[in-house]
Amino acid sequence: MVIVFALVAVAVLAVVAALHWYVWRRLVRDTTRAGGTARRAGTAVFLAGPALMTAALVAERSGAPFWLQRTLAWPGFLWMPLALYLLLAVLAGEAVRPLLHRALRRRDRAGGDRVGEDSGEESPAPPRRSPVGPPLGPPGRVADGRPPETRGTKPPGTPTLAAEGRPTAPAAPAAPAGNPAPTRRLVVSRIVAGAAATAAVAAVGHGTYGVLRGPRVKRVTVPLTRLPRAAHGFRIAVVSDIHLGPILGRDFAQRVVDTVNATQPDLIAVVGDLVDGSVKDLGPAAAPLARLSARHGAYFVTGNHEYFSGAEQWVAQVRTLGLRPLENARTELPYFDLAGVNDLQGESEGRGPDFDKALAGRDAARACVLLAHQPVQIHEAVRHGVDLQLSGHTHGGQLWPGSIVAAAANPTVAGLDRYGDTQLYVTRGAGAWGPPTRVGAPSDVTVIELAATRA
Question: Where would I find the Calcineurin-like phosphoesterase domain in this sequence (predicted)?
C-alpha cells in the first residue's frame, strides 16, 4: 500500500512539474532574452511558487507551529489558483497565437507594398554615363588640380568603377550596434503572455476579495408537505465551510456572524467544516460564534475537516460557545423535528453517521429537517423519510472548473434538488479551503424559508 501511495505521489508531482514547466516556457522563456534579469526573475517565481505551495500544505496537515502555517499560507495557497488560471489562460492563448501571427504577417506585407507607392514624389532619374577617365583641366593638371605625376591614382573616397563603367557609391559607415528589433514570434509571445498573466491575476484578485469581504445572503423557499401552517415562513440560516485557519481568522468569523444575525433567523444550522486546525490554535478565532443569535438557537454537525483537526475537542468547544452539537441525534422543535448526523470521515474514528440512532422512533406525521455535511448522505436520508436535508462540503466547486470535479463526486453541487420525497439543499459555504479564493462559486449564507403546503 505504501508503494502504491508513493508511486501515485510521484506521478502527481511529475504532472504538476510538467505543467509548471509548460507555463514557465510560455510566460518566461518565450518572452525574455537568455541571461536577462526578466528571465532570472520569472524563473525564480516559478521555482518559489510550487515550493511554497507544497510547504503550506505540509505545514497545515502536519500540525506545524501555527506561526509557520500563517507565514506559508498566504503565498503558498494563493499560488494554487494563480497557477491554475495561468495554465488555463496560456492554453486559451494557444488558439489565439496563430491568429496573431497571421494578422502581424498581413500588416508587415501591407506595409512593405506601400513603400515607394503614392508618395507624391518622382523617382530619381538614372545616372548619366560618364566618359572613362578623369576630365581634363588646364595643361599639366587634371580637373581636380592634381599634378600629372599623381595621374592614375585615386584620392581617398573616390567611387570605384563598376564593370560597365558606372561609378558605385562608397560604402556607408556601419550603424552602431544595439538591441535587435523583436521578431514577430517574440511580439506574439509577449502579447499572449501579457494577456494571460493579466487575466489570471484579475481572476484571483477578484475571487480573493469576494471571500475576504464575507459571504452574501441567499434566500430560498422550500415547501414541505408535512409542515404545519403555523410554521409557514420559518427561517433557517444555513452556514457551512467557514474554514477558520491560518488565513481566515477571528475577523472573518465576526463577519460571518454579523451576516447571519442580520437575517434575523428563527434557527441557525452550522453544517460542518468550521475549522482547519486545533482548538489551541483557533479557539480565539472561533470565539465570535458565541454571538450567533436565533429564537430557536444554533445547531452544529461535524464536517470532514473537524476530524482532521480533532472532532472531539471541537464538539466540546462549540458547546461552550452556545451551539448545540447534533451527534447522530434529534431534537423536537415546536413544528418539526431537527436531526443531525456525523460526517462520513468520522468512520475512521468509529464515530461515523448513524441514521437509525438519529431518526428511529420519531413521529412520522411530523416534518423532519436533517443536517448532514456531505450531499452524498442524501440516499440514507431518503430511505429514512427525511423531508429536507441541509448540506455543504462542495464549496460549489470553489475554483472553476472545480464544479465539474465536484459534480462527479456529489449528487448536487449547489442549490436545491429533489430525490424522491426528500429535498436536498447544498450551500456553497461561507469561507474557502486552502486559497482564500473563489471563482465562479461565490460564498454564501443561505436563509431557507420553510413553506407549508397544507391549509
Answer: 234-396
Distance separating alpha carbons of residues 54 and 47, to the nearest angstrom: 11
Specify the length of the chain in residues.
455
Q: Could you read off the pLDDT of 262-297 as tens digits, one per residue?
A: 999 999 999 999 999 999 999 999 999 999 999 999
- DSSP assignment, residue 451? E
CA–CA dist 455, 135 (Å, integer):
124
What does the DSSP assignment read for 164-181? TS-B-PPPPPPPPP-PPP
pLDDT for residue 140 is more than 80: no
Q: Characterize the bridge pairing of strands 422-426 and 216-224.
A: unpaired
Q: Is 425 left (phi over 0), alpha (psi -120 to 50) or beta?
A: beta
Contact 428, 396 (CB under 8 A): yes
pLDDT in tens, 67-79: 999 999 999 999 9
> What's the half-sphere exposure (Cβ side, CA atoms, 13 Å) at 379?
3
**Could you tell me whether strands 422-426 and 444-452 are parallel, antiparallel, or unpaired per DSSP bridges?**
unpaired
Of the chain, the percentage scoring pLDDT greater than 70 comes to 84
In angstroms, the CA 317 to CA 389 distance is: 25
* Residue 250 phi, psi dihedral angles, 5° rounding: -60, -45
* Phi and psi torsions of 444, nearest 5°: -155, 155
For 291-320, the pLDDT digits (tens) are 999 999 999 999 999 999 999 999 999 999
Amino acid 167: pLDDT: 53
* DSSP-assigned letters across all residues of 316-375: HHHHHTT-EE-SSEEEE-SSSEEEE---GGGGGGT----HHHHHTT--TTS-EEEE-SSG
Q: Classify domain 215-452 by CATH number.
A: 3.60.21.10
- Residue of 367, 391, 121, 371 lying closest to 225 (CA atoms): 367
* Residue 150: pLDDT over 60: no
